[in-house]
Amino acid sequence: MSSPRIDTLLIDEENEEKFAAHGVSARQVTEVLGNVHVVLKNRKQRRGLYLLVGKDKSGRCIAVPVEATHKKTLWRPITAWPCKQSEETLLEKRGKQDEQET
Description:
Elements: E1 8-9, H1 13-21, H2 26-33, E2 37-41, E3 50-55, E4 61-68, E5 74-77, E6 81-82, H3 85-101
C-alpha cells in the first residue's frame, strides 16, 4: 500500500489546541509540507491512518497523525508533537534514500 499524497492540511481550533499542548504551532505543522517529509502508516489502534513526519523551517522535526477528509489531497491533522528519536531516524533514512535515487 503506497502512502497518500498530502498537499494541504485542514487546521481548526480543536487541533491547534492539541498542537499547543505539545509545544507545536499551526505554522510549524504547515511548514512540514514545504520541506522534506515522509508519510508513514501509523501504528495500529491509533487515530489517524497515517503519520506525517518532517521538519519545520527551523529544522525541528514534527510528527503529525492525519485523517482523510472529503478531498483526496486535503488531510486533517489530529495533533502534533516534536518527533521522537525513532520518528526522526525514519525521516533521515528516507531523506538519504531520496538523495541516492537522484
